[in-house]
Design brief:
The complex is a heterodimer of chains A (295) and B (311). Chain A is built from 12 helices and 2 strands, in the order ααααββαααααααα. Chain A is mainly α. Chain A has a single domain, classed as ABC transporter involved in vitamin B12 uptake, BtuC (Orthogonal Bundle), CATH 1.10.3470. Chain A has a two-stranded antiparallel ribbon. In chain A, α1 crosses α11, α3 crosses α8 and α10 crosses α11. The longest helix of chain A is centred in the first third of the chain and has 29 residues. In chain B, α10 packs across α11. The N and C termini of chain B lie far apart (60 Å). Classes of the chains: A mainly alpha (295), B mainly alpha (311).
């Protein structure tokens, strides 16, 4: 069988870009609030539906849909943290209680979305037809996705390194008490992180839904690879997440080629991320964080 | 009506076993098993596949429990040394992968369509008798599991587990191997969930991948959190209440006209319920059961007589 390796590589970048957009919120809120937010899957789904609502049902186009989804989902993420997780943590809830609460929130959001829209798959209208660049088959959507991921990485890098809020985020993540004592409003830092994280999840959701399909499990479908990215990259580590997103993207796309070659079902591609997750836990639970100490 | 009530009892019994197993893992040992459904699935499919080739039902149940315990060990071992959240993510992922495998491998157990399972008790022409027989079988298994967990919780072994849950470092300093205790609790819990899975498969007489959605895990968590973690009576109470709520919602569906699709509403209410429990009743309805030992009784007796003398 002839394999177009350039295409495999390009697809890896696409997969990695979606995982990166989805994982940024998980890894930053995980690092700051100290629990994995399983409801992040539903932030992805919610963003995709809001994007669909604005772009398709209102007919305002995809760019406006992305902006609206970012803002609305970001606000929802902030409100969820403010009304559920923060009070629970203040009441002394353990990490297990917070995880259970996030799963409960996920069910509430998922089925509210199911009730508001429907459980039948919906589809975005394709923005442009596919065209060829050399050996590659690409669509406009994919190019936009890659551009968005690159822009996000650059912006986040500058925010984290150069700006006050970025420094505050890093300080709060590494030592909350010291950050508080140094006059950083840790609560506000966490709120901003939840807002931005949920907003970026929405962007990931729109691209994922436009590329495949839109239904209330859009986010749940990719939450396991996203958690694999977060663990492999090191919890709370943005640069680790970038590397991990593309490593897992590559592993999945090469894995699909292998799966087809040995005659197994390609639905197992999600198992590849799981395998990486388990291997990371066995070999190096800190993930790639060792390589990016400064972050 | 009677058959419906008996059916309800069978379900309560089966899920009470799963709730007990989660109570052992989460309530006593402090492990976050977010993939309970995986071990339920292993039990159900092992039963289905083994009973198909004519193996007697008790051997099917036991082998399901053994296989599940082995998987429980394999999957939990990498994560047990780490924080609770790593285990939660790893086991959650395991459950989804397992469901995926049974969904896509048609040769194994019918893939998406599932397969039929031969029941323990052959059909005698009466659904009441069939359900009564199953209540007997499920009740027996539940009784054994309850006894095991109850005795374990009050034994020195159970006290070590609680100590590890409260303070890992302190327990380790006393020479208790926390990874070993956690792994054992996880294996036993997985085995019990598999027994419940086997009973479930033979009672319904079929298995298919849609029966093992992550929602099952979550339902069991509600049972344990609502009833009261680290209290076995609480796990039974929780199983009864959640199942009652489930049935009630199902019946209400037929009589109420709501603007929201009732099946969606049911899940939303489940989610709201658990958040309310976490906010206002994090210890559940029943308090953690106190440890009863001879030494404690004597100490209490001595203290009481001492007080009497003084007064």
């Amino acid at each position: 069988m002839e394999v177009n390796w350039a295409q495999v590589l390009f697809n890896s970048v696409i997969t990695g870009s979606i995982y990166l957009l989805g994982a940024v919120g998980v890894t930053l809120t995980y690092g700051l609030s100290n629990f994995p937010n399983f409801a992040h899957a539903e932030f992805i789904t919610l963003g995709a539906f809001i994007g669909y609502f604005v772009a398709e049902q209102f007919g305002l186009g995809l760019p406006l849909g992305i902006v609206a989804a970012f803002l609305v989902t970001g606000a929802v993420g902030f409100l969820c943290y403010r009304s559920i997780f923060q009070p629970l943590a203040k009441r002394g809830a353990t990490i297990i209680h917070l995880m259970v609460a996030s799963i409960a929130l996920g069910f509430i959001l998922r089925h509210s979305i199911g009730a508001a829209w429907s459980w039948n798959p919906l589809y975005f209208t394709p923005t442009s037809s596919a065209f060829d660049i050399g050996p590659l088959r690409v669509t406009g959507l994919w190019l936009w996705l890659i551009l968005t991921a690159i822009a996000l990485s650059v912006i986040m890098h500058f925010v984290l390194v150069r700006t006050t809020i970025g420094k505050a985020i890093r300080a709060s993540a590494s030592n909350p008490e010291l950050a508080l004592a140094s006059g950083i409003n840790v609560d506000r830092v966490i709120w901003i992180t939840w807002f931005v994280g949920a907003g970026l999840a929405a962007v990931a959701g729109i691209f994922r839904a436009a590329d495949t399909q839109l239904w209330p499990l859009t986010g749940w479908d990719i939450i396991l690879p996203i958690f694999a990215v977060v663990i492999l990259g090191g919890i709370g580590n943005f640069y680790g997440a970038i590397a991990a997103a593309f490593i897992i993207g590559l592993a999945e796309n090469v894995g699909v080629v292998v799966l087809i070659a040995v005659g197994l079902s390609t639905t197992y591609r999600i198992g590849i991320a799981f395998l990486i997750l388990i291997i990371t836990l066995i070999v190096k639970p800190q993930g790639l964080a060792m390589l990016f100490r400064r972050a | 009506m009677l058959t419906y009530f008996l059916d309800f009892l069978v379900f309560v019994g089966i899920f009470a076993i799963v709730a007990l197993s989660l109570n052992l893992e989460f309530g006593f040992a402090g492990l976050a098993n977010f993939g309970k459904v995986a071990f339920f699935l292993i039990g159900a499919y092992t039963y289905a596949l083994l009973s198909q080739i004519g193996i007697p039902f008790y051997l099917c149940l036991i082998s399901g429990a053994l296989i599940s315990a082995i998987f429980g060990l394999l999957i939990s071992l990498p994560a047990l040394r780490l924080r609770a959240d790593y285990l939660a993510i790893a086991v959650l992922a395991f459950g989804e992968i397992l469901r995926l495998i049974f969904k896509s491998e048609k040769w194994l157990a019918g893939g998406n369509w599932g397969m039929s399972v031969s029941p323990v008790f052959p059909w005698m022409g009466s659904s009441v008798i069939y359900r009564l027989e199953n209540i007997g079988l499920v009740g027996l298994c539940l009784f054994i599991c309850f006894l095991v967990v109850q005795l374990l919780a009050n034994s020195p072994y159970g006290r070590v587990m609680r100590a590890i849950r409260e303070d890992e470092v302190a327990a380790e300093a006393l020479g208790k191997d926390r990874a070993k205790f956690k792994a054992q609790a996880f294996m036993l819990g997985s085995a019990m969930a598999a027994v419940a899975g086997g009973l479930y498969a033979q009672y319904l007489q079929y298995v298919d991948p849609t029966m093992f959605m992550p929602m099952v895990t979550f339902t069991v968590w509600i049972m344990v959190l609502l009833g009261g973690p680290a209290n076995n009576w609480g796990a039974l109470l929780g199983a009864g209440l959640v199942e009652l709520f489930d049935r009630g919602a199902n019946i209400a569906k037929d009589y109420l006209t709501l603007p929201v699709d009732p099946s969606n509403l049911q899940y939303i209410l489940f989610g709201v319920l658990i958040i309310l429990v976490l906010f206002y009743r994090p210890g559940g309805l029943l308090k953690e059961s106190q440890i009863k030992t001879k030494a404690l009784e004597l100490a209490r007796y001595a203290r009481d007589t001492d007080n009497n003398k003084r007064s």
